[in-house]
Amino acid sequence: MYSIVDIETTGLSPHREKITEIAIYVHDGEKIVDEFSTLINPEIEIPYRITQLTGINNKMVKESPKFYEVAKHIVEMTEGTALVGHNVNFDYNFIRKEFREFGYDYRRKKICTARLSRKLLPGRRSYSLGKLCRELAIENPHRHRAFGDALATMKLFEILLKVEKNLEELTIKGLNSNLSSSLIKKLPKEPGVYYFLDNEGKIIYIGKSINIYDRVMSHLTNNASRRAIEMRNQIADIDFTLTGNELIALLLESNEIKKHSPIFNKALRRNSFQYGLFQYFDDKGYHRLKIDKNDREELPLTSFTSLLSAKSHLFTLTEAFSLCQKLCGLFDTKGACFHFNIRQCNGACIGEESPVEYNARVAQAIEPYTFDIQSFFAIDEGRTNGEKSVIHVRNGKYIGFGYFNPDLNENIAIEQLEECIYPYPDNRDIQQILRSYLKRNHVQKLIPY
Fold first, then answer.
1. Which residues pair with 177 in a beta bridge?
2. Which of 312, 341, 369 is the last residue of a domain?
3. Which of 44, 123, 336, 366 is within CB 3.0–4.6 Å of 340 for a Cys-Cys bond?
4. 123 or 5: which carries more pLDDT confidence?
5. Does residue 318 carry a pLDDT above 60?
6. Phi/psi of residue 25, each to 5°?
7. CA-to-CA distance for 239 and 196, rounded, in angstroms?
8. What's the chain's average pLDDT?
9. In total, how many domains does the chain have?
């Protein structure tokens, strides 16, 4: 099931602006089964330039419902569906922000018709909704109104569904005879890890995606390189493991690749992160940073694919936080570093700045690469409705992940979470994944202990 959505707003930023109109068409893949459209009172002034574009003015929305008054209906209407939109992240971010204002964490899977059009309708002059509609003879007499653009997006989506189905059938004809269209149709459009196997049942490639079906189809239609074609022609079977969310897919993929060493993942290993940013304290108490190879037992703060990119990043940190080039291993000298001579270093290299003052800036510089909390459970979406996933980190070390079904009437006990964790090994790649993801994305709940 799909919920085709479009909104109009008072501006472009979800942090400062508000929704003025929303339209939703629930589609079962063949036809509309439900629809909803309404103006929204944004509770702020609509700029004149927005009124010129959409035709929606302050008088029109004055008596309209506020977002919280229609929120329950939106939740119920879109439950169990994927949110479809043209450049869907724009609509999704606004809708999520409106829900967050009264404490509700609204989450849905997303499908972007702009992105899907680039994949299934290559070679177009433009992938804007208006120009695609003109090229595909989709009528939209109500452009820049939510109900008009949502209906046009729905018609575009119906075309894309038909193209994807035909592409799937054409793709199968040129592949390994053991691959059937029924096998591919059974692939889920959900987050997880997928496995390509050859005629002997040997795993030849492991990947992850937030949409397994779409990612597998991109492999099966990939003619970009000889290696991609060679792998595609060897695929005789496809297996998968659902994870419920992207973070566990990333963690599981990393572990599975190390465990099975698939032949077509070797290129990824050769191009993996070879250098890391390490930290230590010298005998004078200064917190020092250093670029080194990732072949030591210590885990780096972050990793890089080349020595050049690693040094370039560290140079950026020294300039941004007025760190000492000498103490960061970038300037080899017995005296003051180069930055001290041009007054960009405060003299830690020659003892003129105390370790306390200098170390405070180092801590700021490396804050994005360290866990804010050293021991925690990260709770997020599970593989089914009602199920939750949990990741365990203790004293900065990754312990593993698992799944549980919470009792809504009780608080989650630490003992309950520990019991459902399946242990997995910790390593540099896992640390990189966890730190990077948790800095960029929110999980449903973080439980420190």
1. none
2. 369
3. 336
4. 5
5. yes
6. -120, 115
7. 7
8. 88
9. 4
| Together in a domain, 219 and 108 | no
Q: Is 121 exposed, middle or buried (0-12, 13-18, 19+ CB in 10 A)?
A: middle
- Residue type for position 115: R
pTM of whole model > 0.85?
Answer: no
- Whole-number Å distance between alpha carbons of 449 and 442: 18
Residue for token digits 């029109």?
60
Nearest-angstrom CA–CA distance, 231 and 223? 11
Max intra-chain CA distance, the chain? 76
Do 124 and 91 lie in one domain? The reply is yes
Range of the domain at 436: 376-448
Lateral strand order in the sheet of 237-242: 203-209, 192-197, 237-242
Please give the DSSP secondary-structure letter assigned to residue 136.
T
Listed residues 369, 400, 420: the one ending a domain: 369
Bridge-partner residues for 9, per DSSP? 19
191 lies in the same domain as 145: no
pLDDT at 271: 44
**Ramachandran quadrant class, 69 (left: phi over 0; alpha: psi -120 to 50; beta: rest):** alpha
Task: Dihedral sign for Cα 281, 284, 288, 293, please.
Answer: negative
The answer, yes or no, to whether residue 22 has pLDDT greater than 50, is yes
What DSSP character marks residue 44?
Answer: S
Using one digit for the tens of pLDDT, what is the confidence trace for 143-195?
A: 889 999 999 999 999 998 888 776 665 555 556 656 777 788 889 989 999 99
- The residue length of the chain stands at 449
Among candidates 201, 212, 278, which has minimal Cα distance to 240?
212
CA 186 distance to own-chain centroid:
24
Residue in this structure with the two tokens 């896992």, named with its chain if needed: 430
Structural domain includes residue 170: no
Q: Is residue 270 part of a domain?
A: no
Asked whether residue 174 is domain-assigned, the answer is no
Indicate if 6 and 137 belong to the same structural domain: yes
- Residue 167 has a pLDDT of 61
Instruction: Report the b/e string of 270-304 with b at 16+ CB within 10 A.
Output: eeebebbbbbeeeeeebbbbebeebeeeebbbbbb
Which tokens sit at 186? 């059974």
User: Measured between alpha carbons, how far is residue 439 from residues 110, 303, 310, 396, 433 in Å?
Assistant: 21, 15, 20, 15, 10
Separation CA 431–CA 412 (nearest Å): 26
